[in-house]
Amino acid sequence: MRKHNFGAGPGILPESALHKTREAIIDFNGIGMGVMEISHRSKEFEAVLDRTKSLVKELLKVPDTHEVLFLQGGASQQFAMIPMNFLKTKAAYLDQGAWSSKAIKEAKNIGEVVVLASSKDKNYCYQPKGYSIPQDVDYLHICSNETIHGTQVKIFPSSPVPVICDMSSDIFSRPVDVSKFDVIYAGAQKNMGPSGVTLVIIRKDKAGTHGKKLPAIFDYKTHLDNNSLYNTPPVVSILVCMYTLEWLKEQGGVEGIEKINKQKADWFYGEVDSNPMFYGTADKEDRSPMNACFLLSDSSQDEEFLHATKKANIVGIKGHRSVGGFRASMYNALPFESVKMLVEVMKEFAKVKS
Ligand SMILES: *Cc1c(COP(=O)(O)O)cnc(C)c1O
Q1: CA atoms within 13 A on the CB side of 96
Q2: Amino acid 192: pLDDT
């Protein structure tokens, strides 16, 4: 029996994608070889790459000005590649949580960084707002969903400078206007597929405009010119993304899944807010539907609650050490039934304890 998997990442994948992958590992499309054993330049893999790319474009309505790349090194490598490719004089960053602060740290290794706003004063329990964006920066970097603290940007800033966004933990969870961003990137392992591949959506005319001598592998232009085949791509990871996106399309795409995600989040936060044993750590208006951080009012009961969830086949809800307590990650592939089960355990816990 499959667990109710609330893990923050790598996260749960659709069962259909796992079944298809199992087949493909032994015999891919009946060719007598597994997908791990074929050339990345074979027509079989070429079809996978094309299909995955066109699914990304279709689901996110990527305009012709932009191209889809599949890179490696995770979102963490993007923290470095972004300033390598785009930081000329200085760049603006928002300090919204653990991930954006890592991005800031990397950018500072490359050049001058201005931090426009920070929510560190309250352990990142809210999204900074009301900041002004200077005109004289090369770009503004933001993180759409801070996975560790459970906060999400609801309205993207209208910016006089190009916006670059880390969407690792909420990509494909809601519609997004891609044309508003010069670069969107996401490690696949939260909401799109397995680890090993990083999605990059980049404005084509911005790739290669750095005017520097960069190692080819860290230059977006290299990957753009080589259709993500400059080096051997993570063939299996891309295939699992393809199966996951096919599943997503069957759910009604990002518009369809957004409704389901909202139902899951409403159900869960509804319980957090009405059950006196629990409270949420993030400001209500900034709460993430993907990652819900919550604490027990009496933290001495943490172990007991964890035990109760385990008995109900629930895994992955222990909070990140920097926030403590619990975190329920409710990525696209997490069924509504899993959220229901967790809510039932919370209700039961309150009943027994009162
Ligand atoms: C997980 C995560 C990262 C780091 O991703 P890697 O692929 O492990 O480098 C970066 N940003 C956000 C928002 C994340 O959730």
Answers
A1: 32
A2: 98
Q: Which of 99, 141, 149 has the most ligand 1 atoms within 8 A of CB, as the residue to mutate? A: 99
The size of the chain, in residues, is 354
Contact criterion met (CB below 8 Å) for 284 and 292:
no
Structure tokens that stand for 262 in this block: 């909202």
Determine if ligand 1 sits within 6 Å of the CB of residue 149.
no
Please, what's the largest Cα pairwise distance for the chain? 66
Tens-digit pLDDT profile for residues 329-352: 999 999 999 999 999 999 999 999
What gap in Å lies between CA 167 and CA 143, rounded to an integer?
A: 6
Dihedrals φ, ψ of 287, to 5°? Answer: -60, 140
Q: Angle 340-342-348 (CA atoms, 0-180°, nearest 5)? A: 100
pTM metric for this prediction: 0.98
Q: pLDDT tens for residues 51-107? A: 999 999 999 999 999 999 999 999 999 999 999 999 999 999 999 999 999 999 999
> Domains plus CATH for the chain?
15-250 (3.40.640.10), 253-353 (3.90.1150.10)
- State whether the beta carbon of 329 lies less than 6 angstroms from ligand 1: no
For residue 115, give Cα distances in angstroms to 89, 163, 290.
14, 14, 26
Pairing of strands 291-296, 278-280: antiparallel
